Amino acid sequence: MANLQTPNIQTTAEREAALLASFAMHSADSRGRTHPEPEHPYRGPFQRDRDRIVHSSAFRRLSGKMQVFTGEMGDYHRTRLTHTHEVASIARTIGRALRLNEDLIEALALFHDIGHPPFGHAGEDALDECLRWEGGFSHNRYALTIAEELESRYPAFPGLNLSLEVLEGQATRAEKSAAYAAAGLAPLLEVQVVEAADSMTYDAHDTDDAVKLGLVTLSELAEHGLVREALALVRRQYADLPDDPLRKAVVHQLIDRQVGDVLAHASRVLAEAGSATAEEIRKLPLRIGPSSELAEQKRELERFLYDQVYRHPRLIAQRVQAQGRLKKMFAGYQTRPELAPPRFRQRAKAVGLPRAIGDYLAGMTDRYCDQQYAQHFAS
Ligand code: MG
Question: How many CB atoms lie within 10 A of CB 85?
Fold first, then answer.
């Protein structure tokens, strides 16, 4: 490696000391990795995590996994990959404004949905049912399996060997914060920012996609506070917008309103933090998230989206079909394990056949899952 100790190369520690708040997670305080590695000459540990995630095959497969709507419904709406990029973009905006560690935020955001199986939550529920005697299936836990066991890119260790802060942040999602709450510890602020950004992202883009696909109308959505306010703001600025630009302007407002609210709320909350460090602030009852008014409006919108969009007859029909296929494949691969790739048959020796088959199925894209079904199990 070239010697980079020149006056023109700023180290990550120097840059972070100059830019970040005391309560940000500074790279220099990272607890490191499961398999110790020397520091990189010009990339900080969380930058390396981000790069490892982006170069992983599980990350690339997110482009073939649905968010809410399947590929058969068109190509306007979000996939799991574009959702992930929107979350990362919004989370970085919030993190930078609060002087948190943007590299860690980006790594956490790009990683947060990497464990989603094919066919979204329908797929997750089916796998959970298939594996109920084996401890069930959760996409949040499966993300950790990918990062620690399934990815193989490096000769020196299995998995991606991510920093413990990234793994712990994901574990918070998997355990719904229960373990941390019991220990009196909040997740790192960077983890809280990604959580908040995830929620504001899907509220905005599911509204956009659902209207674009014609499952609901903007006027139906405007019966609820958050969309009503956004629509009123847009109409004040542009009296007569046609449907398409109107929908886009409303979605823009939905994001702006939520980011503005979370930032205003967070800056008030963090003003009480003084010069606390990242570790100290975890012991304080401070949370980054929406104000109570916005939280109520979001709940209202999410109830509407759940009833009218996620449970729309067109989506229910796809859900039933996808779940039937996955269950048939789960049983079929166990009867004929020779149809699964050798590395999963090998894995069965360590984790048992049902879990190994579950891990194989969960890694599939929607299209690959359909292809394998048609090839081996359709008749
Ligand atoms: Mg998400």
Answer: 15
